[in-house]
Amino acid sequence: MRLTQGVRRMLLLLFVALAAAGALVLVWAGSPWWWFAAGPLLALTALGVRDLVQRRHSVLRNYPLLGHLRFLLEALRPELQQYFIERNFDGRPYDRDVRSIVYERAKGVEAEEPFGTERDVYGDGYEFLEPSMRPIDVPDEPPVVRVGGPDCTQPYDMALLNVSAMSFGALSSNAILALNKGAAMGGFAHDTGEGGLTEYHLRSGGDLIWEIGTGYFGCRTSEGDFDPHEFADKASLPEVKCVSLKLSQGAKPGIGGVLPAAKVNAEIAKARDVPQGQTVTSPPYHRVFSTPRELVLFLARMRELSGGKPTGFKLCLGSRRQFLAVCKAMVAEGVTPDFIVVDGAEGGTGAAPLEFADHLGAPLTEGLITVHNALVGTGLRDRIRIGASGKVATGSDIVKRLLQGADYTNAARAMMFAVGCLQAQRCHTNTCPVGVTTQDPRRVRALDVADKSQRVHRYQRATVRSASQLMAAMGVKDPRDLGPHMLLRRTDPTTVRSYAELYEWLAPGVLLSEPPASWDADWSAADPDSFGARPHRMPAG
Predict the structure, then answer these.
(1) DSSP 494-524
(2) CA-wise closest residue to 193 among 215, 208, 211
(3) Of 73, 109, 452, 493, which is most buried with the most CB atoms under 10 A?
(4) What CATH number does residue 304 fall under?
(5) What is the structure's pLDDT at 82?
(6) Are residues 77 and 190 in the same domain?
(7) What confidence score (pLDDT) does residue 53 get?
């Protein structure tokens, strides 16, 4: 008979408890020497029981006794890393683990790093921010970004760092509850992901960005089409502050999201209006529009159905011509989204084909700068806010993305770390050891919502505070005063250039009047009535 997963996780504790009982029997039989075995075994049994009932560490609740190995290895990690570095076993300079930074901030610990950086500051690609000779005081309150263009009647003040799109189904109910409660405590936004709007998103009252994907989960007809009536009903909820149309995501642009069959229980099937126990794959494209102009008009319809709430879309940038075609459609129709979220190709997901993750889509830097330039060049930038997502985890990540053209940032992976993710990379197997990416009730219960929501709140607050401190050191009070000249990169051992020099930055409205040569071909080929580019004749010869 095969043992269940729950029994297998408890085997070590059961073995220790039985051994302790056996040793006690031998002591009772008149062999006092067995106390040397019974004592430690009883102590281990007590420790295992404590692991089961405590709420601070999810891995210990799911793996009593055995889970302590993880904390032992974590404690030894810096020394082991330095051991290998000193012997050049890995060939790489030591760089502080971002996951450790997130864990420390989530726990309310701000660790200092002795002896300064160990990064190669003379190596190609080294980047650094430009400090001011006259820094300013750090503001008491973190800055926020007003999201809402001229057609928006219910604008929203967005935090500099928010929870990026992660669906219920991909994440467990307790993970969603912890993220949303943390957002409610900290006053930042929580993107629902494309998996629908559920009670777990609504229970704690955190601000929501309701994301609609190609499957239209949560506002879907029986035929799989967009249901405007259900959308309007849910978008009117006070917790929903913005609505977002997902075109693509960084980890797997060009294909829809995938939820493995093992995760599709009755609750998720009901929330998504899909069959239980079957793999759910979103279509690769939307059925409600097929051209840039239709996309822009559909966004306007979504905003109207939502009662005037901020409406936007998310994409991993591919063709610059196609995005320019959307900009042309905006100009022609006089309609703009209130925000655009640029998702970098370095963004993560729990299930994606390896070659899609490694080779398709623009990295966040290139995507962000391109979208910013396109909106500036078409005179639309002041109407549209830009969000950035893709491996955003630290205060310096936020500042760099703001310098590159973003107004605010979203984080997914770092928020998962804050709720206890160990990056075991078993998201698609339904066997997450800490209850973050599983629908197994026994594993989910290990994630304590009260504790993890506090960690989410602390992490977000400390990271935004770090960004504010960096900006103050740069002499900047308002994020809008950041510029690309403040971020520098070493391009070779003797040359340092700023982002203002490394990249082209368009003047407002220049694409409408006199497109620069580097943009002219794409601008001319962009068609607001087709996502396929107009034929562009190659020069003869």
Answers:
(1) TEEEEHHHHS--PPTTHHHH---HHHHHHHH
(2) 211
(3) 452
(4) 3.20.20.70
(5) 43
(6) no
(7) 67
- State the residue range of the domain holding 461: 144-471
Tell me, what's the pLDDT at 476? 96
The conformation of residue 90, written as its DSSP 8-state character, comes to S
Residue carrying the six token digits 């809008």: 480
Closest Cα to residue 527, out of 378, 315, 332, 245?
332
Side chain identity, residue 500? A
The parts of the chain modelled with pLDDT lower than 70 are: 1-10, 48, 51-53, 55-61, 63, 65-97, 111-118, 251, 348-354, 356-358, 533-541
Sequential DSSP letters for 17-45: HHHHHHHHHHHHTT-GGGHHHHHHHHHHH
Q: Quick one: pLDDT at residue 165?
A: 95
Query: Hey, is 262 helix, strand or coil?
Result: helix
Is residue 137 assigned to a domain? no
- Are 326 and 223 within one domain? yes
My answer on whether 160 and 81 are in the same domain is: no
Give, in order, the Cα–Cα distances in Å from 239 to each of 160, 379, 439, 481: 19, 32, 25, 31
Q: What is the pLDDT of residue 89?
A: 34
Give the span between the Cα atoms of 491 and 122, in whole angstroms.
Answer: 9
Residues contacting 478, CB < 8 A, separation 6+? 143
Query: Of 422, 444, 471, which one is at a domain's C-terminal end?
Result: 471
Domain total in the chain = 2
